[in-house]
Amino acid sequence: MAKHTTYMMSEDARAQAEFYTHALGGEILSVMTHGQIPGAKEELKDKVVNLSFVAGGIHFLMSDSVFEPIIRGNAIHLSLEFATEAEARAAFEKLAEGGKVKSPLEPAFWGALYGHIEDRYGVMWMITTAGPTA
Question: Of 50, 54, 101, 119, which has the maximum CB count within 10 A?
Answer without folding.
Answer: 119
